[in-house]
Amino acid sequence: MPERSPTATAEREPSSAHESADGPEPLDRSDAPPPPDAPPPDAPPPDAPRDQLAGFTRAQRIAAGTATVLVALALVLHTAATFFTVSPANAVTDSHGDRIRAYMGPEFKQNWQLFSPDITRTMDHLYVRCRLRAADGSVSTTGWTDLTAVDLAELRGNLVPSRFRLQLNNAWSALGGSHDAEQRPLGQRGLDSERYLKRLALTRTPAPPPGSRTVGVQFRDIVTTVPAPPWQSGQTTPDPSVRTTPWWPVEPADLAEGHRA
Question: Which residue stretches does the UniProt record annotate as biased composition, category Basic and acidic residues (predicted)?
Answer without folding.
Answer: 10-31
